[in-house]
Amino acid sequence: MKALCVVLCLSLFLGSAILSRAQLPEDGSDKLSAAATLLPQHHHSDVSGRAYNLDGIEEMALAANPEIKVAVRKLAVAEAHVASAGGLEDPSLMYRGWQVPLRQPWNYNAAQNMFMVGQTFPGPGKRGLRTSIARTDVAEAKAALDATRLDVRIRVRKAFYDLLRAEDGLRIHDQHVDIAQQAVAAAKIKYSVGKVPQQDVLKAQVSLTRLAEHLIHFEQDTELARARLNTLLGHDPSAPIDVRGDHVISTQLPSIEALEKMALQSRPDLVQMQAALDKSHTEEALAKKTYSPDFTVSGGYMLMPGGSEFRNNYMLEASINLPWLNRRKHDAEIAESTAKVTEQDAELAAMRNNAFGQIQEALLEARAAQKLAAVYQQSLQPQAEATLHSTVIAYENNRTEFLDLLDSQMTVIDLDLAYLQAVSEFDARLADLELVVGAPIEQVQKSSPEVTQ
Fold it and tell me: Are 45 and 216 a contacting pair, CB within 8 Å?
């Protein structure tokens, strides 16, 4: 950017030296003025309120995102079900009136009046298995919550870097507008004294118009990124929000082995699928317990008819179900639960294989984006600024044309913006890598010292 400042100073010098002695013909001046009016007369670097960094934005999103709140409530529902899952069925209360005379249906003194309380007890081990199934539901809900948090965090990170790139692009645009306007002034001066042809003035006009075109896209990208970020934060999409941060492309990328190992431990969908498989195994064990009969025990008081030798009596009653007489049904239930376990075993293996493929693709894309951003930062940008600096010197000494100077300026502009796009792409690919791994890259690096450049 130092070379750009040189151009700005040169243009100011030319303007102050010659502007008082010459003017562009009226039609050319009008065209240039019309082009200049397309550009707003302010700088986008001004921030009206507080600017948030990435950590602050992520913290706000994890606390206020509506999707996370829904997942939290679902987890609370699953946790509340655990206490009741292994409970007993409700006890029963029964009254039975025996031998009530048909001719005197109101004469219960002549009948046997029975009052009983009963309770059913599941077969051994069934209650514990039902509680275990409820606990696996909790594990699934926790994994779903972690998956939602991870997805929100990755989307917030992408939106943050999109907004950061757009705001940085607007600031670079403002710098280039200042330079282009001074270049137009220089072109008008040289054209008025016959040192450059009219095509140089027209080329300067095109450059200004192109900047106005770029501004439309920059502002659109800014508003879209801001709306996405506000939505993830649970705010009004049109609310003002500014971000501040740096693009880092020197992050060392872990090896594929370290990423795969971390994914097996941390990736929420794999954890959720493992919990579902554990639940299916427990359901299979519960299905096999079908042949363990349930017991019902009852006890009661019996009031005999008047005149009986023993007017007050008590009674006990016990019963069991007979699952062996319904083998066709229960064998089918066991076969169904076994088939479900087999299916989910295969599904988990497929998910792991798919996850490893996604990690490989995301790592390759992140490496490529990192290399491209490094090429812009370490080679293309310095080369373009050196070329512009050389062109400025040549232009001062009348050894090159104004169009060459303008082309060098636009090359620097394009490479500055291309670099922003490249680092933003790397940020996005790095976020994708964290999404398919299920953990931040820094956590993977701490867990395994093996890294790749």
Answer: no
Task: Please write down the long-range contacts of 297-302, taking CB distance under 8 Å and 24 or more positions apart.
Answer: 297/118, 297/119, 297/121, 298/92, 298/94, 298/116, 298/117, 298/118, 298/119, 299/116, 299/117, 299/118, 300/94, 300/114, 300/115, 300/116, 300/117, 301/114, 301/115, 301/116, 302/112, 302/113, 302/114, 302/115
Phi, psi of 120 (to 5 degrees): -100, 135
Query: Which pLDDT tens digit goes with each residue over 167-210?
Result: 888 877 777 777 667 666 766 776 677 666 677 667 767 777 77
Domains of the chain: 49-452 (1.20.1600.10)
- φ, ψ of residue 171 to 5 degrees: the values are -65, -40
Q: How confident is the model at residue 76 (pLDDT cuts 50, 70, 90)?
A: very high
Nearest to 96 by CA among 318, 315, 321, 320: 315
Residues near 225 by Cβ (< 8 Å), separated by ≥ 6?
Answer: 159, 162, 163, 166
Looking at the chain, the number of H-run helices and the number of E-run strands are 12, 8
> Per residue in 364-384, pLDDT tens?
999 999 999 989 888 998 998
Q: Which residues make Cβ contacts (< 8 Å) with residue 252, sequence separation at least 6? A: 445, 451, 452, 453
3-class SS of residue 50: coil
The type of residue at 324 is: W
The answer to whether 444 and 259 are in contact (CB under 8 A) is yes
Do 148 and 156 touch, CB atoms closer than 8 A? no
Tell me the three state secondary structure of residue 314: strand
Residue 452 pairs in a beta bridge with 253
**Which of 151, 160, 153, 157 lies closest to 225, judged by CA?**
160
Cα separation, 234 vs 185, in Å, equals 48
- Give the separation between CA 165 and CA 114, rounded to whole angstroms: 82
- Rounded distance, CA 389 to CA 26, Å? 33
Structure-block tokens of residue 420: 């922003």
d(CA 22, CA 9): 20
**Closest Cα partner for 409 from 199, 204, 217, 169?**
204
State both tokens at 273: 């699928």
Rounded Cα distance between 314 and 301, Å, is 4
Phi and psi at 322, nearest 5°, equal -125, 80
Provide the residue type at 99 as one letter: Q
**Residues 279-313: pLDDT tens digits?**
999 999 999 999 999 999 999 998 888 777 788 88
